[in-house]
């Protein structure tokens, strides 16, 4: 049986209980900072 997409959240939560943090940011501020670094300025107002 394949995992559902919703189980991804459980993996993040379970990892956090063991002290493992996600490789990618899980906050709005982190996503925005990553987008600013990765996208060209002309992609939209920031």
Total helical segments: 2
Count of structural domains: 1
Indicate the proportion of strand residues. Answer: under 5%
Any low-confidence stretches, pLDDT <50, length ≥5? none
State the shape: elongated
Q: Mind summarizing the main beta sheet?
A: none
The rounded distance between the terminal residues' Cα atoms is: 42 Å
CA radius of gyration is 15 Å
Order of helices and strands: HH
Extended strand count: 0
Query: Structural class of the secondary structure composition?
Result: mainly alpha
Helical amount: 40-55%
Mean pLDDT across residues: 82
Please explain how this structure is put together.
The N and C termini lie far apart (42 Å). The radius of gyration is 15 Å and the shape is elongated. The chain has helices at 7-17, 28-38. The protein is mainly α and 46 residues long. The longest helix is centred in the N-terminal third of the chain and has 11 residues, at 7-17. The protein has 2 helices and no strands. The chain has one domain.
């Amino acid at each position: 049986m394949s995992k559902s997409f919703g189980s991804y959240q459980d993996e993040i939560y379970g990892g956090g209980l063991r002290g493992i943090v996600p490789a990618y940011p899980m906050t709005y501020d982190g996503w925005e900072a990553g987008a600013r670094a990765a996208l060209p300025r002309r992609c939209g107002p920031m």
